[in-house]
Fold this protein.
Amino acid sequence: MGGDHVVVTKSGKTTYGLDRFFSSLYGKVVPGLCFLSLSLLSVKHRRSDPVVTEQVEKPLEASVQAPPKQKQSGGPRGRPKGSKNRNRREVELSPSLCLIQTHIKRLLEQIGDHVKITYFVFNFRDAKQYWGLEDFMSVRERPVYNSANLAMFMVNLSHALIGPMREQWPACSVNDLKAWFRGQKYVVETLKLLPEPPDSIFIEQVVAQMAALGRVNHTVHAT
């Protein structure tokens, strides 16, 4: 089990929980919403499955900015003479932090290629790109909560549907999955317009052939 935050950019002033949060994607503080997602991490399959997503709200006192301090007049301006530039990345660690750093380095050396730490990136990209986490228009508390959790739920559902399809279609992606079901829906609705419905075997063949037209990646045995 692991948890991570995701920031969703939003404009306007009426969305519940709207504030300014730091986004690592943009490298700066942006106006939007922040969510904390807990996921099950699978080391074997190198995958994370979202379990629950909660909105993060800043405390009221943290949102209120302190009044700017008045500059005290007097004294020389600028840096003292003889001062040298310091590397901000070189931080002096306390003995306890040095001990923790040593243990972490030894742990990473023992893990090696068995577990890649960089793998544990949560499925926020899929939720934003394919399932509306970045695009929902809800503004009230409950609809915002439902929209975020629905996007993360669709990540799990797409994983469950893509898994069996990749046995014969290793390159199957979310775009292929959406194109498949969209084409299947079009074929079924078109066949309903016929005066007499065809037999089930013909329907399965037509659906399998037509639903694959919009796919991005082809199957291994495709001709």
In short: DSSP finds six helices and four strands in the chain. Residues 46 and 118 are 10 Å apart (CA to CA). The mean pLDDT is 77. The two ends are 43 Å apart (CA to CA).
